[in-house]
Write a structure and sequence with these properties.
The chain is of the alpha+beta class. The chain has 2 domains: 135 residues, Rossmann fold (3-Layer(aba) Sandwich); 156 residues, Tumour Suppressor Smad4 (Sandwich). The chain is 32% helix and 34% strand. The chain is built from 10 helices and 18 strands. The strands form 4 sheets. Strands 6-5-18-15-8-9 form a 6-stranded antiparallel β-sheet. A 6-stranded antiparallel β-sheet has the order 14-13-10-7-16-17, covered by helices on one side. A 4-stranded parallel β-sheet has the order 2-1-3-4, with helices on both faces. Strand 16 and strand 17 form a beta hairpin. The chain is globular, with a radius of gyration of 19 Å. The relative contact order is 0.16.
């Protein structure tokens, strides 16, 4: 496998790429032709270009694109699409190029890829390859987070049309409808030879630095060999709403040393009753669950000044 520097040089010099855009992401269908023309104008040779229109075809199309042997696989879509691509490219000699076309674009924010399309393409032409951690839930890798509780119910219920129209507002709007019927969970997190217990409607275990398009803390990122476990609010519905609003406003001011954050390398999570799990916005299963890390598992195109541990 080439070094990161060698792969960076190959991307800048040869510009051999494949393109996959999820047409079901918030901006994917509308922007596919524009993305395609921008990459050609930037000097990329596209070994293959695929708009994914049908549900269930994303895995197959991504694998087909990767098998063409590009130096960079450019993927346009939301966090679910990016997470699927990350699982495919883990520990492979192909860089992931991000075009954030989704609702919240948490992973793009974590690795510093701009949400503006022209600026994101510039990262592909003038950036560098870095490697970042992926989370592990069971045997499945993930980029951003594991959500246990209300968020998993929201992901199942949020209407796709509402997400396209309102963006990340679709999730709190859906949550308001579900919260009146949701019962709090008693959650036990076992990590680093300690046991932590919360009574809450929602727990996250995050690998990245952003959730719902906003920073979790000022120092959380996907390249620190750490997961961040934390509840959102307490047992009351009002507490959840207050905590959600407070997290959105104060994430950039908090650190991993503040409560209620647990910075750990792995965690075992149990609940007093089986609770649904979502992984990067996709349904996964139910608790209990073990969550860990796959360090430096994924190579990503990032800005030239991006930190790389």
């Amino acid at each position: 496998m080439r070094t990161k520097q060698e792969l960076s040089e190959a991307v800048r010099r040869d510009r051999r790429a494949a393109l996959v855009v999820n047409a079901h992401s918030r901006r994917g269908r509308r922007l596919y032709r524009s993305v395609h023309s921008r990459l050609l104008a930037a000097g990329f040779t596209l070994l293959g270009a695929y708009p994914v229109d049908r549900p269930g075809e994303l895995d197959r199309v991504l694998a087909e694109a990767a098998d063409l042997g590009p130096d960079v696989l450019v993927v346009g879509g939301g966090d679910g699409t990016i997470g699927t691509a990350a699982r495919l490219l883990a520990h492979r000699d192909i860089a992931l190029g991000l075009l954030p076309l989704g609702t919240t674009n948490n992973f793009a924010r974590t690795v510093g890829v701009p949400l503006d399309l022209d600026a994101a393409v510039e990262v592909l032409t003038a950036g560098k390859v870095i490697d970042v951690d992926l989370g592990l839930v069971g045997d499945m890798r993930f980029t951003n987070h594991v959500g246990i509780g209300l968020s998993a119910d929201i992901m199942l219920k949020a209407p796709p049309r509402l997400k396209r129209v309102t963006g990340r507002l679709a999730y709190p709007l859906t949550a308001l409808g579900l919260l009146a019927r949701h019962r709090p969970l008693r959650v036990t997190v076992r990590a680093e030879a300690r046991e932590h217990e919360f009574v809450t409607h929602q727990v996250y275990v995050a690998n990245g630095g952003f959730h719902a398009g906003r920073p979790i803390t000022s120092d959380a990122n996907a390249d620190d060999r750490l997961l961040v476990a934390y509840p959102v609010g307490g047992p009351t519905r009002r507490g959840l709403l207050r905590a959600t609003a407070g997290n959105a406003a104060a994430g950039h001011r908090r650190t991993l040393r503040d409560e209620p954050f647990l910075a750990v390398r792995q965690a075992w999570v149990e609940t007093d009753r089986p609770a649904r799990i979502e992984v990067d916005g996709e349904p996964y299963g139910e608790t209990p669950v073990r969550i860990g890390l796959d360090p430096n598992a994924l190579r990503v195109m990032a800005s030239a000044d991006s930190p790389d541990r």
